[in-house]
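Reviewers asked in the last cycle whether our approach scales beyond single polypeptides. To address this, we selected a multi-component target totalling 1003 residues and predicted its structure end to end. The input consisted of the following lines:
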Amino acid sequence: MDDKASAGVSMDSRVAGVRRETAETTLNLRKKSRPGENVIQGFLLFCGVLSMFTTIGIVLVLGNESLHFFTNDNVSITEFLTGTQWSPQIGQFGILPLLLATLVTSFIAMLVALPLGLGAAIYLSEYASPRARKILKPVLEVLAGVPTIVYGYFALTFMTPLLQSIFGKDTVNIYNMAAAGLVMGIMILPLVCSMSEDALSAVPRSLREGAYGLGATRLETATKIVVPAGLSGIIAAFVVAISRAVGETMIVAVAAGAGPNFTLNPFASAETMTGHIARISGGDLSYDSIDYNSIFAIGMLLFLLTLVLNMGSRRLVRRFREVYE
Amino acid sequence: MDAPEEKPTSGLPHGAAMQRNIVRRRRKGTVLRSIFLGSTLIGLVALAVLLFTIINDSFGLVALDYKVDPATLSDRPLEELSRDELVVILQDNISSNAFRTLERTTPMAQRSEGDVLGLVLERVVKQSVAGTWSLTDSLLNRSAIEAQVAAESPAATLKFRSWLSGGFLTTPMSSNALIAGVRTALFGSLWMIGITILFAFPIGTGAAIYLEEYARDNRFNRIIQTNINNLAGVPSIIYGMLGLAVFVRLLEPVTSGRVFGVEGSNGRTILSASLTMMLLILPIIIINAQEAIRAVPLSLRQASYGLGATKWQTIRHHVLPGAMPGILTGTILAVSRAIGETAPLIVVGASTFIVSDPDGPFSKFTALPIQIYNWTSRAQGEFGNIAAAAIMVLLVMLLTLNSIAVLIRNRLSRRAS
Amino acid sequence: MTTQDRYTLNARNMSVFYGSFKAINSVNLDIERNKITALIGPSGCGKSTVLRSFNRMNDLVPSARVEGEVIFHNQNLYAPHVDAVEVRRRIGMVFQKPNPFPKSIYDNIAFGPRISGWKGSKTEMDDLVEHSLRNAALWDDVKDKLKASGLALSGGQQQRLCIARALAVEPEVILMDEPCSALDPISTLKIEELMMELKQRYTIVIVTHNMQQAARASDYTAFFLMNAERAGEIVEYGPTGDLFTNPKDKRTEDYITGRFG
Ligand SMILES: Nc1ncnc2c1ncn2[C@@H]1O[C@H](COP(=O)(O)OP(=O)(O)O)[C@@H](O)[C@H]1O
Ligand SMILES: [Mg+2]
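The resulting structure, written as structure tokens, was:
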């Protein structure tokens, strides 16, 4: 574009110039090749496709190393999936203790995150004034932004002593699944809350009015109309929350304990799948040892678990949107 | 059409029964409302307790024990001595052999005052911690603590200490909690994040532009989109394993810097960590950038095309400027995620103990969250305190980043209105 | 006859505000029992606002405030001790767009009685559902698919479901806010016929911007217009026949003959 100074002066001559040009040359409307545009488009395509390579990379890496693991003489897939002892030193590779610890910590986390997250979502979407919501929501989001290692510290230095003072030092181990699970629940609460709130606020106003018009109270409208109407969105939130809990590493690595332990006792120390991967890879790990390969097999299981959960959740959200859009 | 029928015998309450019914429903409503409010507040209380715990552990009384009383070394407190005076003390009190070794690693003349003070405390005074107390304890139970220290370790002196201090930021790592700092970790984090942004920002923005502006709605592009959404939910530790296998092992010649003529390191470098983090935050950046690009009105694009602009010119001059604040905000949020991530760095192989500042992409590295993890897992009194102090540093970094994001967002909405 | 025998609802100097904006200015309106009263007027003049003030639906808009009185059974609906939940059970509402709950047809009808403390048995509830659907002229359409979702019905059927739903809590008054505006002409006709049947037992207030509908279906008509401050006011109110054949106010005549700006 011309700057202002020249714009006024050159107007006439430019108009004349355009005319002269069309008069002298025949107009060419043929497609021109624009190499610059093509290069850029190529780069953009590469950026878009890179994510595919990431996924392929994850699958190949996890698959390949797991294959090495399972082709090892000491290991069989059945033993891996059904064994109740994980002690690489003596060649025992049963995933169940790690899996169980993952399930116990996740379950405890869900006991905290699901009811509180849904309760908070109902409060924010059905009760809170716009002003209160404007203050409360960002504060809850701060919880979601705190790094998980900080939650790990919190679990170890606050939650564990708290549990010990309630249930006694003899009952509650310094490293225990309960403290890790409870703190993980607090960490996941904002996720459940914000996804559920999205689902609740997507329920059309007209349904609420219909209920009020029949003489329903606010509570009845919320729990009998709005929550059932938003149910698939809420379940989607729950499923994502479970996936987050299963994949969470630092809280359990710090607070749940180091060392596989096949137990349901929440006050006992036990290592989760993620905690085990973190501990083994944090040590001095030599490539191509069976330890190295074994963490990839655990990783594979972890990846598949979370993938199924996440895909299921997004399917639910999509179905929910189809109903109301 | 039938004529309206007579009512069936009604099961609905009337009159006084209706009144009672409404009172009961209202009461139930009030109770549940409080429960819902309570759920919300529990989140807030948890946040408050979390912050309180960290602040509470970052300051407080510490009981210090000495092998050699500092008072016998100098008539003034050691902190007030100049560097040269400290060097003299050091020279007088350790073996000449040990002194020469120190001199050889870094000449005394090049060391900072704090550095030399640290050496004096470590080598001569042989300071050790007999106990630490939290801030609230220190303020509320001071006399009880004094009595306890007098009884258990009579030689120890009790001092109030801020574990988070200027020195904490500027001193490198140490196995002695009293003189350990986060300098190395801080530099490691900054290097790593810088390189991560260098890769992640253009690639993430590019992918978003591709998906929003170029990609037709066909099977291939839908798969790409689904795939990005899926990647956003993959646990971070899996990215660590990908990084370990691909960047640390497979691409070791590149990530160790050997192909660039850098010798003496393996693949566990800042570059490997940054590339891993890049893959981790790319989905977040892409999804946010897509949203920002989608928010640019179609009319703007049409106006540009109407003037004869090519596709890229339209994007470059109209779409990107409009979407940039949103893209930047999304990137900053993704970066704050990366700063706090710990698990992938453990797997990729952050060093647990290095004292020299990283000096480039091919350095061994540690990072702030790794430092916190190491100190937290030691779980002894004073290491808990410096872990809390390091958490404060991390949280302040995140707070700063998020404030910048909010500023950008506000400027955006001001311009829009 | 006392006023409350003849009339179900009496609005007295009712003004409605949204924040500081006065949407309705001092409306006086007596709604006769077992008759259909139509509220007409150009869009934005406050018809819906008036209607929603009759069963305190405006309570749900945080900024809304009502001044003056609405008398129902010799009580002011806006007196401090009056419970909006009970008011809405007695004075039901049907909305512009059909809004069945995403539940079965059966549960749509049963929802109101259930929350209102229904004490009857399962068969009594079945009877109530059938009865309500018959009265809404929907029974023959849906009697074989009571478990199907209410959303699976056609638009006209959905609106009749909403009417049936309102009938199930045994209200005295049914407020209808442009109940046919989203429907095709045949469904519209069905609803109008239905209203004629229902008025034998209920009092009906209907908002419509369709002049033919008002003329065809209502007994009384109130014509609303905005005054200079954009607040809605009643220009003319009377028996529908009089208002349409012999309007007293020039503005009414202009409006019903379509000469209105
Ligand atoms: N929830 C609300 N908040 C603020 N103003 C409103 C609200 N609902 C309606 N109004 C205003 O009140 C006036 C009357 O609206 P309404 O009763 O919907 O008119 P009608 O139904 O006759 O078209 C309009 O000016 C409208 O903008
Ligand atoms: Mg209206």
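The mean pLDDT of chain A is 87. We regard this as preliminary and will revisit it once experimental data from Aim 1 are available.
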